[in-house]
Specification:
Strand order of the largest sheet: 1-2
Shape: globular
Mean pLDDT: 87
Helix content: 40-55%
Largest sheet: 2 strands, parallel
Number of helices: 4
Number of strands: 2
Order of helices and strands: HHHEHE
Structural class: mainly alpha
Number of domains: 1
Length: about 90
């Protein structure tokens, strides 16, 4: 199911240890904690990869942790699903 719904139309991006450390320091300075940290761990690689879209059901949280990404943070209700890069048969 993950392959059909995610990896067929998305690229997996990872952060380095230094990226994580810098993100945690930034979040701490901004007073961001709790569940928003998880959203930031998703948003930062999206930012680094310069994605076209970050699709989420909770756009308000993602805009809070990545204010500069407001133009690419979308909800499934606001965009059509992307075409699969490698359709699964």
């Amino acid at each position: 199911m993950l392959t059909e719904n995610v990896t067929s139309c998305a690229t997996i991006v990872a952060m380095s240890g230094n990226d994580y450390a810098a993100l945690m320091a930034e979040l701490s300075q901004r007073g961001i904690a709790g569940g928003l940290v998880y959203d930031a761990i998703i948003a930062r690689p999206a930012e680094l990869a310069q994605v076209d879209q970050l699709v989420t059901l909770n756009d308000a949280h993602f805009q809070k942790v990545w204010p500069g990404g407001a133009k690419v943070i979308v909800t499934p209700l606001s965009v059509a699903p992307p075409a699969a890069k490698n359709p699964v048969s």
